[in-house]
Structures are given as C-alpha cells and as structure tokens.
Automatic annotation (TrEMBL):
Signal sequence coordinates: 1-35
SUPFAM superfamilies reported for this sequence: Porins
CDD domains: ligand_gated_channel (cd01347)
Localization annotation: Cell outer membrane
Keywords: Cell outer membrane, Membrane, Receptor, Signal, TonB box, Transmembrane, Transmembrane beta strand, Transport
TonB-dependent receptor-like beta-barrel domain span: 362-803
Residue intervals of the TonB-dependent receptor plug domain: 56-169
Name this protein carries in UniProt: TonB-dependent receptor
Length: 839
C-alpha cells in the first residue's frame, strides 16, 4: 500500500496545497481565510484537532492514502484498502467473511475491535449500518469512486471526537471542488476465471461565481468464489450427513446400521469471496454568500445487495422414544437399531442429525439502504484577532431487509420424522412434499438512525513571545437509535438455527469540548484537549489529551501524546435480544463432535462505558542533506479497562473441565458432565486490553536514470497484545484473527511524464497457532501495477495482485476453509484494469 505518515513539514506541504482551493468547513482539511497585516493567510484543520491554524505541525501520526494509490493498487472497496495497512490486526469483517457477516465491511485498527475505531466522513460522524442495531460503520456504504483520500489517525482521539475513537480515527474525504465530467470503468478477475469485479462511476462538477457543485454516481458488482474451487482447500468435515444419523449411527445400505465413518464436505457450498452489488449516489456543494458565510453540504445514498452461502442446514433434533408402538409424538427403535447400540438417553430421547441437502444450501441475502446528509454554515466574527464560527447538522439512516433461504423449521422437522419415520431413517432422499413442509425462508428487518447537531468557535486567543495561542470550543448533541426484528420462527425457537430475540433501543448524548494550542517556545508547542459527555444511558464521561511537539533541529521533530478515551455501550450491547452463535470451540469432555458449538449470547442494559489510556511517542526526521527523504518512528500503547466483552468461552470450558467446582462452570452455564445445552456468554464490563508496538515509515522521492522514483515502506512491530489477561501476541486463531509481530508493506514506483510503474509487496510474519502451538507460515504477497496517461482525457491502469498465487497459511482452528480468510488472501492471483476519461 502506498501511504505516507505525515506530520511537521510533510503535513504542511501536502495540506497547504489542498487548502489552496478550499473554503471553510468543519471537515478534515478545512480552511479559513483570515486577515493578518492586510494579507490573507490560509487556515487548515487536520485530523485529530478542531483548531484551524497556519502551522500544521501536530503531535499525532496520520497516514494518508490518496485516491490515485487506491486505484493504482486495484482496491474496489474501502475495507480492502484499510485492512492492507500494517496498523490493522485482528479479523475485521469484509468481502472474505462468509459466515455471520451479513455482508458488512469494517475496519479494525490495532486489532482492538471495529467498535473501537471511529469512522468519519468529511470530518463528521457516519451512521452505523448493516442489518440493524449495528455497532460499527459498514464501509460498503462508502463507494471508492467518491473518495479523494483516506486519513488514518493512529492515536486515541476521544477528547476531540467523543466515543469510539479509542484505537484511532479513519476519516474518509470525498471528492469536491471538481470541474468537468469524469467517467471511470474498472474490473478484475482471478487466474481461475472467477470472482470477477466490475465498477462504473461518473463524476460531474461545475463552478459558479461563488461556489462549486459536484455530483457522482457509482455501480459495482462482485462475484463469488467457492472454497472447493481452490486446490489448496482441504475438504471440510461435518458429522451432519445428507443420509441422516441416529445416535451417531447411519444406515449401511442393507437395512442395518453402522458407526458414522465419513463426514460431509461443506466447502463445496461456502464462499471465499462473497457476492456484492452496490448502487451509490453522492454530492458535495460549497456556496459562499455575500456576507462571507459559507454553506457546505454533502449527501450520500448507497443500496447494497449482498449474498453469502453456507452448506445446507445441519439439523439436530432430540426425538422422544416410544415405550411401545410408535405414534404421532415419538419414534420406535427397531431391532436393527437397538442391535446397533442405538438407545434413548436418560431423558428418554435420542438425537437425530441430518444435513438437509434436499432443500439446498443456505443462501443469506441482504438488501440495505444507507442515506446520509450533512450540512454546515461557517463564517467569521468581526474581531481583530480572527474568530471563526461553524454550525452543522448530520442525519443518517440505514434500513435493511435480510433473509436466509432454505432454512429449516425444527418443530416441523420433528413432527415430520414422527409421521414419516421410514422416509427419514432410510437414508434416501426426502420427497418434495417433506422438504416443502420443513423448509422456509427466514426474513428479518432492521435499521439505524442518527442525528447530530454541533456548533463551534475557533481562532486566536492572544499572542505570547513564541507565537499565538489558538483555541477551539464547541458543543454537540447526538441521538442514536437502532432495531432488529428476527423472523417469527427464529424468535419462537422453532428454527434449527439459533433462537434470537428482537432488539430495539435508543440513547442521546450532550457534549462540550475545548482545545488549546500553546507555543511555549519557538521549538516547543503544547496541545491540550478536554471533553465532557453526558449520556442518557450510563451517565457522564470526561476525557483529556495532552500532546507535545519539539523541533529539535530543522531536520528533526520529536512528538508525544498522552490521552484518555472511552466507548459508550452500543444499542445492541444494551438492548440486544438474546441470540445464539455457533462458535468454533473444542469440547474437552468430547460430548460435542463438531467444532461449532451453540453459545447463547446475552446483553445488559446496565453496561457502563469502556475506558482507555493511550500513549504515543516518536520522531520525524527529514534530513536536509538527502532531499526527499523522510523517516518516522512511533511507539504506541493502548490500555482499555472496564471493556465490554464476552469472556473467553474456550478458557471457561477448559477451566470447568479441569475443576468441576470452578466458578467458570456457573459463569458459562456448563452443566454436569460437560452438558453444553445451555452454554451462555454474557456481556460484561470486566474485560481489558493492553497492546503496544512500534510503527516505522520510510518515504523517499528522488530522480535517477531520467526517471522519477518513489519508495515507501511501512512496518508495524507488535510488542504486546493482551486481552482479558490472555497473551495473544504473535498468535492466530479463527475466533479472533491474527496478531502478527511483524507486518510490512513495501512500495517502489518509477515514472516519467505520462507513465508510471509500481511494484509492491505485503508481508505477514510467522505466527503461532493458538490451538496447537504449531508455527503458522509467514506469507509475502507480490503485486505490480502500471498507469499510462494516453492524453489529457484518457488514463489507463492495469495490474496483478498476488503475482505468485501464494496460498494462505493453514490454521487448525481457522474461521473458514482451514485458514482465516480475513487475514490471508484466499482468492489467489487477480488481474485488474481500468480506464478513466475526463472531459
């Protein structure tokens, strides 16, 4: 990934260029023109601070990803480009998440959880989106075509932005101040001739005497990739067979019964890349009025249609055994069955399992609509030292309809077995009549809504010997609501899928905040922020931030930040109805043969806010004796306490197995002799996280051999990641993803006039398999891309990702296909290309 970590001179150079054509907004790179000695001086606002000022040196590291870099490297979605960054970890949901994702795409900065990374659009909050009552932003709702650049603030920023910014901020800046018409066509395919993507987008903008209006539209489509279509995929194993099994025994084809010896391969139905189709409309406007008041507004609408596919429903029902002849409410065990060892348990029942292949695979579908509009007014107060004011309103709404075709009604299934015992136990295919009786389409709906009102004042307070003391103050009101209504069959507990209750709730928060920038000396500047939030749910929260920058020499700047943060419990955490989840777990008692075990998830209205402390310290070195070279090194640490979490169920199972009197048995509702029928995981505020590491960036631009060269290298070295007291450093697992000690991205470009060629690679270091302790191989992905400007109107681009078709590393307890698709490339070599035409 071609990115640059910016502060000091690098920020000043890049932002002043952007600001030269901007007007005042409350966005990321906003600018205001102020009077100073009869000259106009540009003022800019940068990520992590609301203070507008000419001097852009800040204490926090910011990574900038340009639209050109996004296109050059063939990214078709925001989540893909973000997860390629070395600062990401864990396993954020995205295009490779087939099981349980509902088609959403998220970002997971530092692997601390998507709910702890704040996503902004043009400097203002984005509505949470997905299937309903969601706790994070669905990045699918933001089309790549509208992005001018992406800013990643790798520092805690709750004192500036409020809740959710514990791990940092992703600020997506849209294209604006555009003039003319631009049409873009982009597409890709894999070396296996599947997984095709296509995108067409248009951008139109025009200037007036006092403003600019920019409009855009985009359509994209992504095809799926089936797991078994990759030769490295090991066949999946499931004890749920298409012929059915009774008490672990199957028909032998001759009227008898034998022990189950084979398993069902579910990889023939499951996706490595999920299908997705999106329609987007977006617009930006800037209008300056005669009284120097500026109106800015942006609007976005995205419709997403997505699918995931899993193997046909695995159905498990406990059947009552008749004492004598069978009737309509029990089954009779034949002599052949009893001779084979099939018998009722202590409750008088026997377990019947069957993979309902006759109904077809489970097809999960989502149809989501996300709408957001944001508008603001900004102007100047008639005060000599320059005061700027702004007011803004943002409204966001998301609604979704989701379904699961070929779901199975467990109640109807049991009744059907009782009524058609011979048909169910024969091992033969089920009749259409039986399939129609037991199958149905599960339908659900949900949504989210957001209102944000804000007002602020910023400018210069007074002069001191080293410069000017600047400030920003403001207030904000925010209202959030969400709901999710599962299918009535699921709510009633009649489905073979996990039972789930409805979710519905809302909260509001009133906030006040202030920032001050103080130049202590010509070289030392302090940044101070304080914020107070009052929530209708848990109550009050106060956060602060202190940052220092010290220009040791003209070439070297030192920087550091200490801050506190918080995350308010989300609607789903507070008001979410009880729901089931089939987690990848190992049963130490050996009662459960499958790796996926049903766990009951519960919420809690009395949850409190999470709290955090963050620290960063580093340097920026731009040696004057090497033109174009910049080095940054930053140490970072994040500590989260009072974290809202579900305790490690696997650890609870192991503890209860080792000691039947352990409190874990009660905590997780584990019954005697390892009875997991009521296994429960409750949300609680006893969680913790402690993670630290070092980021290193090298950027070098130079000319040689008649070519212009750019080299960029990003490295993240993870020193520590602990969660709930468990050390996950350099570990990988299907439940939580990967925390590699070393991640590295390297990029080198060479160009001349109208063409540019780029080679890049992405390295994920060797890790340890959490379940087995075995080494998981490192992987290095190689990519190449090229851009050619045919004329002022036409630009062509093409590239190959994963040139050597690297296979993903094997993970014993992987989330899918024997690996972790959210971490490794499971699609393989991809070819992509595009054309851009501008009039």
């Amino acid at each position: 990934m071609s990115s640059v970590t910016l502060t000091a001179k690098a920020i000043r150079r890049s932002l002043l260029a952007v600001a030269a054509t901007s007007v005042a907004t409350t966005g990321l790179f906003s600018s205001a023109v102020i009077a100073a000695d009869d000259e106009k001086v540009e003022r800019i606002e940068v990520t992590g601070s609301r203070i507008q000022r000419q001097d852009m040196e800040t204490a926090s590291p910011v990574t900038v990803i340009s639209a050109e870099a996004i296109r050059a490297e063939g990214f078709t979605s925001v989540d893909e480009l973000l997860q390629a960054q070395t600062s990401m970890a864990g396993a954020a949901l995205g295009s490779s998440s087939n099981n349980g994702s509902d088609g959403v795409a998220q970002v997971d900065l530092r692997g601390m959880g998507s709910q702890r990374t704040l996503v902004l659009l043009n400097g203002r909050r984005m509505v949470n989106s997905g299937s309903g009552a969601d706790s994070s932003v669905d990045l699918n709702s933001i089309p790549v075509a509208m992005i001018a650049r992406v800013e990643i603030l790798k520092d805690g920023a709750s004192a500036v932005y409020g809740s959710d910014a514990i791990a940092g901020v992703v600020n997506i800046i849209t294209k604006k101040d555009f003039e003319g018409f631009q049409l873009d066509l982009n597409g890709s395919t894999t070396s296996e001739s599947d997984g095709e993507t296509a995108e067409i987008s248009g951008l139109y903008g025009f200037n007036t005497d006092s403003g600019n209006y920019t409009f855009g539209a985009a359509y994209s489509k992504r095809e799926g990739v089936i797991q078994s279509d990759r030769d490295w995929t090991d066949p999946g194993y499931s004890s749920y067979l298409p012929t059915g099994s009774l008490d672990g025994m199957v028909q032998d084809g001759a009227g008898g019964w034998e022990e189950r010896s084979t398993g069902y391969d579910y990889t023939t139905s499951s996706y490595y890349q999920t299908p997705n189709e999106r329609y987007s409309l977006f617009a930006n406007m800037v209008q300056e009025f005669d009284n120097d008041i500026v109106l800015t507004a942006d609007a976005l609408y995205t419709k997403r249609k997505s699918d995931q596919q899993l193997a046909p429903q695995p159905a498990s029902v406990m059947l009552d055994v008749c004492d004598s002849d069978s009737d309509s409410s029990c089954v009779t065990l034949t002599d052949e069955m009893t001779e084979a060892g099939i018998s009722a348990d202590e409750t008088g029942r026997v377990e019947y399992r069957r993979r309902i292949t006759d109904a077809g695979p489970r097809i999960y579908s989502q149809d989501t609509d996300t709408f957001r509009i944001s508008a603001g007014l900004a102007g100047e107060l008639d005060i000599n030292n320059g005061m700027n004011w702004d007011v803004a309103y943002t409204y966001g709404k998301n609604k979704a309809e989701s379904s699961v075709a070929n779901s199975i009604n467990a109640t109807n299934l049991s009744e059907s077995v009782y009524a058609n015992q011979d048909a169910w136990f024969s091992g033969d295919a089920l009749t259409t009549e039986i399939v129609d009786d037991i199958s149905y389409t599960d339908n659900a709906d949900g949504g989210n809504e957001q209102h944000v009102f804000s007002a602020g004042l910023n400018g210069d307070l007074f002069d001191v010997s080293a410069g000017t003391v600047a400030f920003a103050i403001g207030a904000e009101y925010r209202y959030e609501s969400g709901y999710y209504n599962p299918d009535p069959v699921t709510v009633a507990g009649d489905s073979t899928a996990a039972q789930q209750d409805a979710t519905d709730g809302n909260y509001d928060v009133i906030s006040v905040f202030q920032e001050v920038s103080v130049p202590f000396t010509d070289k030392l500047t302090g940044e101070f922020a304080l914020r107070y939030d009052d929530y209708s749910t848990f109550g009050k929260a106060s956060t602060w931030k202190v940052g220092l920058t010290y220009e040791a020499t003209d070439d070297l700047m030192l920087r550091g930040v200490a801050a506190t943060g918080f995350r308010a419990p989300s609607i789903s955490e507070l008001y979410g109805g009880d729901t089931g989840s089939y987690d990848y777990l190992e049963d130490p008692w050996g009662n459960e043969e499958d790796s996926q075990i049903l766990v009951r998830y519960t919420s809690d209205e009395d949850l409190q806010a999470e709290e955090s402390d963050s620290y960063t310290a580093g340097l920026v070195y731009s040696p004057s004796y090497v033109e174009g070279l910049s080095l940054t090194v930053d140490y970072w640490r994040f500590k989260v306490t009072n974290a809202i979490t579900r305790l490690d169920v696997q650890a609870g199972l192991d503890a209860c197995y080792a000691d039947a009197s352990s409190s874990s048995c009660e905590t997780f509702n584990i019954g005697s002799n390892g009875d997991l029928s009521n296994l429960t995981s409750s949300l609680t505020n006893v969680g913790s996280q402690d993670t630290s590491g070092i980021d290193f960036n090298l950027a070098y631009s130079f000319s040689a051999l008649t070519l212009d060269w750019k080299i960029n290298n990003d490295t993240t070295y993870l020193l520590n990641f602990e969660q709930e007291g468990i050390d996950y450093t350099n570990m990988i697992d299907g439940n939580f993803g990967a925390y590699a000690e070393v991640r590295n991205n390297f990029n080198i470009q060479a160009g001349q006039d109208d063409w540019n060629v780029m080679y890049s690679n992405r390295y994920i270091g060797e890790m340890e398999d959490l379940s087995t302790g075995d080494d998981v191989d490192a992987v290095l992905y190689h990519n190449i891309a090229g851009t050619y400007h045919v004329s002022e109107m036409i630009t062509l681009s093409a590239g190959v990702k994963n040139i050597t078709d690297e296979e993903p590393s094997s993970v014993s307890n992987g989330s899918d296909g024997g690996t972790v698709p959210e971490v490794y490339d499971t699609v393989g070599r991809q070819y992509y290309g595009g054309v851009s035409v501008k009039f």
